[in-house]
Amino acid sequence: MPKTLPLMVQGTSSDAGKSAIATALCRIFAQDGYKTAPFKSQNMALNSYVTLDGKEIGRAQGVQAEAAGILATTDMNPILIKPTRDSESQIVVNGEPYGNMKAFAYRTEFYDEGLRIIEQAYQRLASTYERIVIEGAGSPAEVNLNDRELVNMRVARLTNAPVILVADIERGGVFASLVGTLQLLEPEDRDRVIGVIINRFRGDLTLLQPGLDWFEEYTGKPVLGVVPFIPDLWIDAEDSLILHRYQGQRETPREIDIAVLRYPRISNFTDVDPFFVEPDCRMRFVTRLEELGEPDLIVLPGSKNTLEDLQFLRETGLAAAVNDLHHKGKTYIVGLCGGYQMLGEAIHDPAGVESPLQQLDGLGLIPMITTMEQKKTTVLSRGEAVFAKEKLTVEGYEIHMGQSAYSRNDFPFIQMEGRTEGYCQEERQLIGTYFHGLFHNDHFRTLLLNAIREKKGLPPITDRPSFVALREQGYDLLADTVRRHVKLDTIEEYMKAFQEKEVQI
């Protein structure tokens, strides 16, 4: 078997575009006939992905595996950090909960174990794949953390990977961020950087060229590419740092108004992405009561700290407003995972699994009580639902610590093998389910939106876009754009040259 060639993508900051560039490279290498896998040693994100065997990894690596045309495994993201409170996170190792840890304890007590886990996972991938696209996190120039980091240059040295440094020109100060990052690296790590990519460029490249020439002369590092901004690229985001990009539709007039409650520990918010491609939907993320109004649809998304996010809804008045809209029959309400739990009568957490709060009353719209448990449910799910007098297949995935028990359930939503799941009372315009990805089911989304249109006296829309097809097209568009604007031949030469050197651990 040919020797594995790794390539690492690092950034000058979070949200610089590392995940997108890594996704493009996964697609490109796969298109070129190489068996390719993504790898991110340690990922901090609240948007996660469930593998075929029911394990949990960061969503970005699941997306990158899809782009590479392979099934995701936990080796592609052996350590996942899911913040539950300030300075405390749930640590997921090889797809399963390891425990909750404070930031200092993770850094001081877990480092050696984490390094062993990372090395073993990478070696398993290297025994199977010809190309491995490695993604860093944040910035490699965090001088206060670099002596015990597990995700940037330590991994580049471990795998002997050449490094591409990515910067986002939309933020401004792109040359300062690139030069500053390079100068703060140790000399041996700076030598490992084979060049830079400037991401999300808009405008006339000739106006940027003097800056590119200056950068190359000043640093001695080549600009490997300037990647233009790609509008309407529907590839799942990694975490809530990207949420500011979701505000573009806030003032756009559309026939259907959708409000998504944005609480502090919102997770898997990509559940609502399909609404952004719908021609009649205006999407808004709502944090304050005065922003809510009277939308046609309210979505309560997932949460990594359901009790404290429920408390947030109560303190802001959003919980009372949702109840009021429900009782007036003005609005469809859909709760997903943690949002589903909030719609129940109460949530108990006697063992402090997510929060020191032991109990809170829910919104009381669904007759169920949820109890948080140490064991996490992570599974790909499929079942038959009935909505708008139609029977349809729905697929999704479940990631939750709580188990919900009904005092009665006269309106089960999804029939699965041997059990029912969720709650759906169409007349009261209320749905709750543990199924993440519910709105990615094109048929269900069409029925729901057309039910809202009918309620408003509007004609149905039957030829709605397929979000799954749009995402697949997005991978190709991203790959084609990077092919046109990045020096892939130069990158390939560096990948081969680095593997001729002795691995430095």
From TrEMBL:
Boundaries of every CobQ/CobB/MinD/ParA nucleotide binding domain copy: 7-233
InterPro entries to which the protein is assigned, alphabetical: Class_I_gatase-like, CobQ/CobB/MinD/ParA_Nub-bd_dom, CobQ_GATase1, CobQ_N, CobQ_synth, GATase_3, P-loop_NTPase
Transmembrane segments: none
Pfam families: CbiA, GATase_3
CobB/CobQ-like glutamine amidotransferase domain residues: 257-443
GO molecular function: ABC-type vitamin B12 transporter activity; catalytic activity
The protein's annotated pathway: Cofactor biosynthesis; adenosylcobalamin biosynthesis
Role this protein plays: Catalyzes amidations at positions B, D, E, and G on adenosylcobyrinic A,C-diamide. NH(2) groups are provided by glutamine, and one molecule of ATP is hydrogenolyzed for each amidation.
Name the UniProt record assigns to this protein: Cobyric acid synthase
Gene of this entry: cobQ
